[in-house]
């Protein structure tokens, strides 16, 4: 999903050729860049945007699943879902902190999310009407996120890479809990299996869109690859995801909703892979630009949480101030 | 009291890509002297490429007596680990 973080990124730099060449040489030597190091403005801006959008995605991503915590069908499922949503909150924090090392404040980022200036992954603008969606999100949405995040553990920017290592480690259960939900449904009644199939039908294409636009349409990707913020292109990761996921759908006895999906032994340099049908890019851009089914609801929910929480933040600060004043007074006495 | 030289905690980044790690403490009058003393004390053999010094009094630690109530709840939540979930082997790595 995080390749979508590059949409609209401005990688332009005004630094001298010499400075840029020196910076590139560090990157080429696989040196990590740390917060106090000199870096091109474009590098910094690209990271602020990408890490910020990644953080927003974690926070907004809590909403479609949080919606099901009270309705999870068993205590086991409820505990797992609660733990997963709690993890996403933590992941948002790691990422916001990584972005803050680049000189942007949390308040700025929050403001940009709530005003619609900053984006988050298009996937969270789809509704979750059935319990099977919780399974599918874990399997496909977290699966795609992991596919994206594993190479980010080697990102050239140290704080982002370290946050990703932590996130990937914690997230390893998210995909499995989702797939386990689907195994149960697919081994259940005909209606339960149908519910799983219906969910796959709705989530398959949006999951593939999480990898971002086609390489040919992704103009900022090239610079990001050169700076080793990204390690694989959008289409490469998308292909890897499809190849890993189709056999998992077959195991469940579900049909991937792509009539053009076909094994091609020539693909991936002779290792074989799946050919697939075209993605609906009009839908992708419509959802990215705010026209998805849930865009308005998601921002409304985040805004409500922010506004409703204002008195807590204010009270905590007032209390801290009172304690500090008391300490100063005691010290003076 | 006011004549005591303040205590600082020293954190060293062994190399870019790794976090700063606490390596010890020292006394110094201000942050400039603390950084110099940290460099002289803790990085004489190429231990690091970056130093942080933090006034020790700025560090607040959790109470060891509360270790059980703080950390034990994290131990019994087995569902936070991937091995809790049954995924058949033929599905492959997930």
Automatic annotation (TrEMBL), chain A:
Pfam families given in the database record: PaaA_PaaC
UniProtKB keywords: Oxidoreductase
Transmembrane segments: none
Known EC number: 1.14.13.149
Metal-binding keyword on record: no
Molecular-function GO terms, alphabetical: phenylacetyl-CoA 1,2-epoxidase activity
InterPro entries recorded: Aromatic_CoA_ox/epox, Ferritin-like, Ferritin-like_SF, PaaA, PaaA_PaaC
EC class name: oxidoreductase
PANTHER family (UniProt xref): 1,2-PHENYLACETYL-COA EPOXIDASE, SUBUNIT A, PHENYLACETIC ACID DEGRADATION PROTEIN PAA
Name of the protein described by the UniProt record: 1,2-phenylacetyl-CoA epoxidase subunit A
Annotated organism of origin: Maritalea mediterranea
Gene assigned in the entry: paaA
UniProtKB/TrEMBL annotation, chain B:
Gene this protein is translated from: paaB
Natural source organism: Maritalea mediterranea
Protein's name in the database: 1,2-phenylacetyl-CoA epoxidase subunit B
């Amino acid at each position: 999903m995080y390749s979508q973080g590059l949409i609209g990124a401005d990688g332009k730099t005004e630094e001298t050729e010499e400075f840029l060449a020196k910076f590139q040489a560090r990157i080429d030597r696989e040196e990590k860049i740390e917060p106090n190091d000199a870096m091109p403005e474009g590098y910094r801006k690209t990271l602020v945007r990408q890490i910020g959008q990644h953080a927003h995605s974690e926070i907004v991503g809590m909403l479609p699943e949080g919606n099901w915590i009270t309705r999870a069908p068993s205590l086991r499922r409820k505990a797992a879902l609660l733990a997963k949503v709690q993890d996403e909150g933590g992941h948002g924090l790691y990422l916001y902190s990584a972005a803050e090392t680049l000189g942007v404040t949390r308040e700025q980022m929050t403001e940009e999310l709530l005003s619609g200036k900053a984006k988050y992954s298009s996937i969270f603008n789809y509704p979750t009407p059935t319990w099977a969606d919780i399974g599918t999100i874990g399997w496909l949405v977290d699966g795609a996120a992991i596919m994206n995040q594993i190479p980010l553990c080697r990102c050239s920017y140290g704080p982002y890479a370290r946050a990703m290592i932590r996130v990937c480690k914690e997230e390893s259960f998210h995909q499995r809990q989702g797939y386990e939900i689907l195994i149960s449904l697919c081994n259940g009644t005909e209606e339960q299996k149908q519910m799983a199939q219906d969910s796959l039908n709705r989530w398959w294409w949006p999951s593939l869109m999480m990898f971002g636009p086609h390489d040919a349409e992704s103009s900022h990707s090239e610079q990001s690859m050169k700076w080793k913020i990204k390690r694989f292109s959008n289409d490469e990761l998308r292909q890897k995801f499809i190849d890993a996921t189709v056999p998992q759908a077959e195991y469940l006895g579900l049909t991937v909703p792509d009539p053009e999906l076909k094994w091609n032994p020539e693909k991936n340099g002779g290792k074989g892979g799946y050919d697939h049908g075209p993605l609906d890019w009009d839908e992708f851009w419509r959802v990215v630009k705010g026209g998805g089914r849930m865009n308005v609801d998601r921002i409304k929910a985040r805004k409500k949480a922010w506004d409703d929480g204002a008195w807590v933040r204010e009270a905590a600060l007032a209390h801290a101030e009172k304690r500090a004043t008391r300490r100063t007074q005691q010290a003076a006495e | 009291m006011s004549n005591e030289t303040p205590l600082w905690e020293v954190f060293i980044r062994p190399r870019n890509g790794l976090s700063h790690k606490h390596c010890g403490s020292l006394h110094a009058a201000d942050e400039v002297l603390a950084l110099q003393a940290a460099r002289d004390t803790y990085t004489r053999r190429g231990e690091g490429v970056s130093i942080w010094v933090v006034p020790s009094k700025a560090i607040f630690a959790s109470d060891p007596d509360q270790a059980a109530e703080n950390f034990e709840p994290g131990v019994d939540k087995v569902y936070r680990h991937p091995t809790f979930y049954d995924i058949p082997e033929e599905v492959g790595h997930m």
